[in-house]
């Protein structure tokens, strides 16, 4: 028999009517945009989620794949001699990465603020067209100075993209569904590394008047622009505008988000609520974690090719040998995200990924250059652990922010801070430490160890705080038991429960 749900049911063994301020501290706030008594079956919910997945995730996957390709190809280009062809100065590669991140990291918050203000239907395709064009301009660069200008502009267009995608998904999916959906596009980052390695393997063997790295950037940039145009017309930008949903399904979609996602849906942008997370001390712990895990993520995306060069392979083979570690990284990310959603748990899954990075860095730093097999295995550990935190981390902090404005700020600012990891990695993985990079790997290991301590500490606090709240109210609630529609004042509400 089908189980029938209501948008505010399943809060406690008692009925929803029992949730009154003098008993639990819970204050229900109605929404003019949704019928608070929408009843729907489990089958209807599953059918709706399948429709959303079918119409949204494939586009999100390809959008982020092109984004990752345009960022990862610089490592392949370096291995093909781009730095020599364009007369890069000493440590010019590190300087180029740093310049890119001045705009890429620095404009993350304004980028997602723009998305929150004008809507993702304009910003997401616009960002893609911009960075696709810059990737093609990169192929036309004639010297180091022109590369710096192009990379600076590339960062402008890429800055708000990933954060905008995450915010976009939170308007369609509940907190318990976000991990797997964010993983659906974050898995593109290691997959892009694998695909870019394969593409570089083929392109770098072509006989052409253009350099191999120039062809690589032209191909990837052109496909990005073409897909951006397609996305502008095909991707649904809200549940209300989704033509593939019936009126009944739109009502269910709004009710689901109010139950386990937002305090209200389709709200107007308010600056005062946008910056509200700055008043929460836990935001600053998340900020430190973001900076730390961002170091490992940028090491994997920008320097894996250079790390594998220690094995002494040719340029073509070096790029080919990046494929397997990146592919394993994508697989582990997907499996970890599935497990995280399945058990509604974030902290321990995130901690396990950080442990993999720490072990991988320790192995690479300690093994001699002649130990090819174990060292290559260590690169698998790094990619398996370095890419997974992005997905789990953003799902974690988004699940603890019921306001749409607050979620937009959090994802923008924390994405910005994670991207600052490049400032660290670019300035420690210098040519003078090649080919073993012992000091850079040791620094990376230490930074990830700090992230591990912060993650476990924050999770412990959330666990204990939930227990304290339950004890005060005489209930045994988890985050899923309290409808987010009721939590207008967020953690200040006694009925708030952390999602950890």
Automatic annotation (TrEMBL):
The keyword Iron-sulfur does not apply. The chain crosses the membrane at residues 92-114, 126-145, 151-170, 182-203, 215-235, 283-308, 320-338, 350-370, 376-396, 408-430, 436-462. One of its GO terms (cellular component) is membrane. Residues 1-23 are annotated as: Disordered. InterPro entries: MFS, MFS_dom, MFS_trans_sf. Its main location: membrane. It is found in: Membrane. GO terms for molecular function: transmembrane transporter activity. The keyword Electron transport does not apply. Residues 56-469 form the Major facilitator superfamily (MFS) profile domain. Residues 1-17 have a biased composition (Polar residues). Keywords: Membrane, Transmembrane, Transmembrane helix, Transport. This is Major facilitator superfamily domain-containing protein. It comes from Coniella lustricola.
């Amino acid at each position: 028999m089908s189980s029938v749900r209501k948008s505010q049911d399943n809060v406690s063994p008692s009925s929803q009517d029992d949730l009154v301020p003098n008993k639990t501290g819970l204050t229900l706030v109605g929404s003019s945009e949704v019928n608070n008594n929408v009843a729907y079956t489990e089958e209807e919910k599953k059918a709706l989620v399948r429709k959303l997945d079918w119409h949204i995730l494939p586009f999100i996957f390809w959008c982020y794949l092109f984004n990752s390709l345009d960022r990862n190809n610089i490592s392949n280009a370096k291995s093909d001699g781009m730095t020599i062809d364009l007369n890069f100065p000493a440590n010019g590669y590190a300087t180029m990465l740093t310049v890119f991140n001045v705009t890429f990291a620095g404009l993350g918050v304004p980028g997602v603020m723009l998305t929150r203000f004008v809507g993702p239907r304009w910003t997401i395709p616009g960002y893609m067209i911009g960075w696709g064009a810059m990737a093609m301009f990169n192929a036309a660069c004639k010297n180091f100075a022109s590369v710096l200008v192009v990379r600076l502009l590339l960062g402008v267009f890429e800055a708000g993209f990933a954060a905008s995608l995450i915010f976009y998904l939170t308007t369609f999916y509940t907190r318990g569904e976000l991990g797997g959906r964010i993983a659906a596009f974050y898995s593109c980052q290691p997959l892009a590394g694998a695909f870019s390695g394969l593409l570089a393997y083929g392109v770098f063997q072509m006989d052409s008047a253009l350099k191999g790295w120039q062809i690589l950037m032209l191909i990837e940039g052109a496909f990005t622009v073409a897909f951006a145009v397609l996305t502008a017309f095909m991707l649904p930008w809200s549940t209300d505008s989704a033509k593939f949903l019936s009126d009944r399904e739109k009502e269910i979609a709004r009710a689901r988000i109010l139950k386990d996602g937002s305090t209200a849906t389709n709200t107007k942008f308010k600056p005062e609520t946008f910056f509200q997370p700055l008043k929460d001390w836990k935001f600053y712990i998340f900020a430190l974690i973001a900076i730390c895990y961002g170091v490992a993520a940028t090491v994997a995306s920008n320097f894996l090719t250079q790390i594998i060069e220690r094995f002494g392979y040719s340029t073509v083979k070096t790029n080919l040998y990046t494929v397997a570690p990146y592919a394993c990284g994508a697989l582990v990310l997907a499996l970890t995200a599935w497990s995280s959603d399945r058990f509604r748990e974030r902290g321990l899954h995130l901690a396990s990924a950080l442990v993999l990075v720490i072990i991988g860095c320790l192995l690479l730093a300690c093994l001699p250059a002649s130990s090819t097999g174990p060292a290559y295995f260590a690169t698998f550990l790094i990619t398996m652990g370095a890419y997974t935190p992005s997905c789990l981390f953003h799902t974690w902090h988004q699940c603890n922010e019921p306001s749409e404005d607050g979620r937009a700020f959090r994802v923008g600012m924390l994405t910005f801070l994670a991207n600052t990891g490049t400032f660290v990695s670019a300035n420690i993985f210098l040519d003078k430490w090649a080919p073993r990079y012992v000091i850079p790997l040791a620094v990376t290991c230490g930074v990830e160890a700090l992230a591990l301590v912060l993650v476990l500490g924050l999770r412990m606090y959330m666990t204990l705080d939930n227990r304290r709240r339950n004890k005060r109210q005489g209930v045994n609630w988890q985050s899923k038991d309290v409808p987010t529609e009721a939590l207008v004042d967020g953690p200040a509400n006694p009925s708030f429960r952390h999602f950890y």
